[in-house]
Model the fold of this input.
Amino acid sequence: MFDGYSQNTILSGRVKDSQTGESLIGANVVLSNGKGTVTDFGGMYSITSENGNFVLTVSYVGYQPQTQNVVLSGPDQFIEFMMKTKSLAEVEIVANFAQTRETPVAFTNIPSAKLNEELGSRDLPMVLNSTPGVYATEQGGGSGDSRISIRGFSQRNVAVLVDGIPVNDMENGLVYWSNWDGLGDVTNAMQVQRGLGASKLAIASVGGTINIITKGIESKARPGGVIRQETGSDGFNKTSLFLTTGRTKKGWGITIAGSRKTGDGWVDKTFTDAYSYFFKFEKAAGSHL
Done:
């Protein structure tokens, strides 16, 4: 009598943190034949696969991926993984960008070319209105009065980071964009991550995370500078200066930017009269920055 189930094996197990022993929820577990799953609330996984020799890969954001050769030949197997954290991975994921098909989070990248074409003199969040799940508004206020929501969550539940450093107010979670006037002039790229992400930082990323990466060593900016003059209605006038050394042969880099902005504003009492400045000093030492 032929048993139709004799050619399949159930491979199951648990994925834990090697230091705390806590179960890891949502870890990716994939066999080399393409079959895979994610761990449940108890860190458990289960895959039913045909028999054969395969490579089992387990990955989780902020942890070192692990692989193991498995031979499926009939009896069900149970394999437990103890994941080790990557001490620099948290900074790399937050300061840099999530990668397509590598990071299990929905995200949208906004390159510098789009910023140059669409942002103009507006606050930085206003360029994100074409991003799925994102709504930004200036609320009829003046410069720096923008507000942004992701997936329906207000700005106090959205984490904003500049080069990996949280800039949300520590009391109410808000971001006062007037404090970051001129940031668009030095932004190399932005990424909007929608939904919760894995991070050891105390950031309010319930709705999502906005990563802002400024120009410098990692952006591979070429040595040089730019002077920009903008004019508009209601007496608007803005002069901007941007200078960078790029990456020197010894791994150093300096980026300087500044701007002067004035304007009467379209609404009464929303005039603008502000200076902004930015200074970035970097040194690359191997894989560290």
User: Anything to note?
Assistant: The chain is about 5% helix and 40% strand. The helical segments are 89-95, 112-118. The CA atoms of residues 47 and 204 lie 34 Å apart. The chain has a mean pLDDT of 82.
